[in-house]
């Protein structure tokens, strides 16, 4: 067995596909290909599978992910159409000489404890034309990193994610205690730094957490959206979905909680949150140098 091999665990019935991250003696550290799951396993419990092999659970996740991404693209297109209609009908209606407007989606700063998931996330932001800056940062360093980055990046949305989980080695654990979680305490520290930087929940939207994270502690620290109410595994792109919805929900509207949570890949047991205004703006007239603002041109 080699680094990078795709494997399943015999003891779990081969329910999820993992990639071998590294091997130490007779054990391997493995990362979920679809879910934000980091685990270790005896080598004799792992079975190598071909790239074409998809577990039933993985197949369900892919179907839901495709549905969610299709819905995101549809929402993005409809938002642009609504922006044009609102300008044409409202007080901002352009004169005959003004033929266009520009869009300013909310800017995302994404910190991720996993480089592979970060690359997937940045690719999706790019597809959706959402301005985003991403950094691979170990969960324990996220608070210090945010302290340095926030004044420079000045984002509208911060995503704080990576790997987490309930520690069960001792067979007795308290779901209400931060000490029972792999990285929830690190996420809490990072959220507090971000919330100290911007106290207004509508001026800075914080999306935080990973698989099985301490949902209540993350919300209590100041997150707008967090995982995981049901202490379940979340899909690698769930935080991106929430950030994207916030990015192109107009500032005059609140993010539709029911719509967001029911359309994430993991559902409302994977992500929860509080009422929050969007960060999408439109402006006129159309700018010549759009790259300076990292905005999107749209014709009326």
Notes on the structure:
- The protein has helices at residues 56-89, 115-127, 142-153, 184-197, 215-221, 238-247, 257-263, and strands at 6-9, 18-24, 27-32, 38-42, 46-48, 100-104, 108-112, 132-136, 157-161, 205-208, 225-226, 272-273, 281-283, 296-299.
- A six-stranded mixed sheet has the order 8-7-9-10-11-12, with helices on both faces. The chain has a five-stranded antiparallel sheet with strand order 4-3-2-1-5, with no helix packed on it.
- The chain contains seven helices and 14 strands.
- The protein is globular and about 65 Å long.
- Strand 9 (157-161), helix 4 (184-197) and strand 10 (205-208) form a beta-alpha-beta unit.
- The termini are far apart.
- It has 300 residues and is of the alpha/beta class.
Key structural traits:
single chain, 300 residues, alpha/beta, six-stranded mixed β-sheet, five-stranded antiparallel β-sheet, 7 helices, 32% helix
Low-confidence stretches: none
What is the overall silhouette? globular
Strand content: 15-25%
Computed over alpha carbons, the radius of gyration is 21 Å
The helix content, as a percent range, equals: 25-40%
Kindly report how far apart the N and C termini lie.
Answer: 57 Å
Rounded average pLDDT: 85
Short description:
32% of the residues lie in helices and 20% in strands. With 300 residues, it is an alpha/beta fold. It has a 6-stranded mixed β-sheet, sandwiched between helices. A 5-stranded antiparallel β-sheet has the order 4-3-2-1-5, with no helix packed on it. Strands 13-6-14 form a 3-stranded antiparallel β-sheet, with helices on one face.
